[in-house]
Amino acid sequence: MSDNDKIKVTIIPTGTMHADLTWLLIDPSRMATQAQPSKQRDWVPVPTHVVYLEHPNGQKLMWDAGVPRDWEDRWGPTGLDQFFPVDTVPEEEWLDSRLKQLKLEPSDIDYLVLSHLHMDHAANAKFWQRAGTKILVDEREKEGAFSFDGYNKGAHIKSDYDGLELDTVRGDTELLPGVTLLSTPGHTWGTMSLQVDLADSGTMIFASDALYRKESYGPPAIGAGIVYDSVAWLESAEKIRGIQERTNAQVIYGHDPEQITQLRTGPGNYYT
Q1: Which residue from 4, 62, 118, 159 lies 20 to 30 Å from 74 (Cα-Cα)?
Q2: Where is the Metallo-beta-lactamase domain (predicted)?
């Protein structure tokens, strides 16, 4: 079987934010105590990525849409530009540059699947506004993302996605043979993960923000400062663990600065 007859997955780094680690990991060992009231906080890299998938049936899928070039203007009204500055992005890593490297136009993508609608995952979704691409989100995510008035609700910035035709899925959904969207809420109303069953590399689970980092996964799973529903988040972490144990999957975390350096990434460096 040639590579053209297999699912091909390319992990594409799309720039790095920085943030206080507590947003991503509520780790008691790093917290101040009476004995150490001034314990140093951790200002850590928070890399972002998208996933480009080519299916042997000819369809193309993009998972998430990265951070925006104009993050200071778009995030400034929320105040989150101070907490999550996008301060490490080489020119070649912005999503529009990545599409050129892949020799793709937005209209070449059949499915844009947004794991959730936070500002670092959906910011470039409007690249696909008139592309004829089917844009998919979890139905609870869509409902929540339009449930508020004003510019933003936390990291949901309505202008990132209003005006888009957002189709929805409910529960675990096999989108294409070997490609399954997993319902993993908790981080937001309807966060999804992506399971891909590859011929050579086995199963890969792209956890998005259901699991920020390796430490998040544990065991035991360790919660975060940004969690909409902590009980649902823990259930989702254990759901991923159950699938991982059954399939011997490799779990790809949403923002792990060490793991991203250990993966094959960038155009041409795909998994099959």
Answers
A1: 62
A2: 47-255
Lay out the sheet containing 166-169: strands in order across.
Answer: 8-20, 43-54, 60-63, 111-113, 134-138, 166-169
Encoded tokens for 21 = 């680690």
Q: Are 60 and 108 in contact (CB under 8 A)?
A: yes
CB of 104 closer than 8 Å to CB of 95: no
d(CA 199, CA 152): 42
Please say whether the beta carbons of 183 and 171 come within 8 A. yes
H or E element at residue 246 = helix 230-247
Q: Taking 80 as the threshold, does the pLDDT of residue 165 lie above it?
A: yes
Q: Which two three-digit tokens encode residue 154?
A: 């936390």
In whole angstroms, what is the distance from residue 113 CA to residue 140 CA? 14
Residue 133 is given by DSSP the state P
Predicted model pTM:
0.96
From CA 266, how far away is CA 269, in angstroms rounded?
A: 6
Instruction: Kindly give, in sequence order, each residue whose CB lies less than 8 Å from that of residue 57, ignoring residues fewer than 6 positions away.
Output: 176, 177
Cβ-based neighbours of 186, under 8 Å, separated by 6 or more: 210, 227, 228, 229, 230, 231, 232, 233, 234, 235, 236, 237
Q: What is the mean pLDDT of the segment spanning 149-161?
A: 97
pLDDT in tens, 12-23: 999 999 998 989
> Are residues 114 and 121 in contact, defined by beta-carbon separation less than 8 angstroms?
yes
Q: Is the pLDDT score of 216 beyond 80?
A: yes
pLDDT of residue 34: 67
